[in-house]
Amino acid sequence: MGNLLPQPSGHAALGHAARHAASASPQAAAVVSKAVVRAAAWLGLNNAALAEILGVSPATASRLRDGSHQLVPGTKPYELALLLIRLFRGLDSMVGGEEEPARSWMNAPNRALRGVPAELVRSVTGLVETVAYVDGARARL
Q: Hey, where are the domains in the chain?
């Protein structure tokens, strides 16, 4: 049987662990929020792409970019942001910090991934697979 009690909304809906993480580390929220915005810009991802990747509205992505919104630790958008940052860090180390080769790689068909990375990362599965691919490629270097 499902839970018939009213479910909490807003901050209360985050659950104990997420509430603890959010209150314990406001700096983490700021750092991850800024880092994911920088990573998206470096990878050539616009607001619509960032919103789709993080599972937030385009308006939220826009507020994230202008600094008026922060991701909450312990939430899905925060976890997805960490994956996108990991992708950025992996590509950055592979291309020596050069944006253009990374953007080219993101927008070119990739036979191993069976798609274009910039399109694949818009789904959770595609993001995880793309990060795993880049991690594997880095390990071979």
A: 22-140
